[in-house]
Input
Amino acid sequence: MKFKALKTTVATALLAFLVGCSTSPTGRNQFILVPGAEMALMGASAFSELKSNEKISTDAKTNRYVQCVTDAILKVTPPQPDFEKWEVVVFDSPQVNAFALPGGKIGVYTGLLKVARTQDQLASVIGHEIGHVMANHGNERVSSSKAANGALQITSIALGASGTANSDLIMQGLGLGVNVGVLLPFSRAHESESDLIGVQLMNEAGFDPNQSVQLWKNMAKASEGAPPEILSTHPSHDTRIDDLQDAINALPATNRKAPNCGRPNV
Output
């Protein structure tokens, strides 16, 4: 009986090792346990719940503006293997925040537009959030939590088990609190990586990557000593700007010109 249990443990550990070997877009080694298609389903389910519980903006100009900036970024975003279409929803909320979930689900809060004052600054945020999806950060969080809890049966993860430990774990992995609408921060390593991916995307799309630095200066001013939600675990202000500036200086020139998306009054 003990030998059988040992075999099961070894087999599970081997499966975790084989599935867990992955590399992010920046070349960082990753621990990935959950199939990408399953993460996409989780993201779609969580996004559906968000739309049911959060107020969605009905302002046509604001929606066109956010969609226009996002579309420009998506034109240069590599195809993702586990879903085909991205979806963007603007939430009518004073939160200074945005997010992107596995499965290509993007949420932007209207409060962000008061701090991201130009379309280039909004492009910086959108590119950053898309970077989280491209780099499988949600999957890393779910995988790490599952491994820490000793639950490595990757095929058993299902968001449909509402109210269970698995459900809460998945929501947290996607960056959502148990109370839907509460966004949880990613690690500093994930945030720094998404910064780098974001400036690459916005540059290739024809936006001014230098505006990513100005955006975080705006964020610091708006925070009045307490960082807004989107900055909660980001690197320190000086570190972020230094890292972003180094990344910007290394960017190749591009002939692409971003569209004029017509910023709304907010």
In short: DSSP finds nine helices and five strands in the chain.
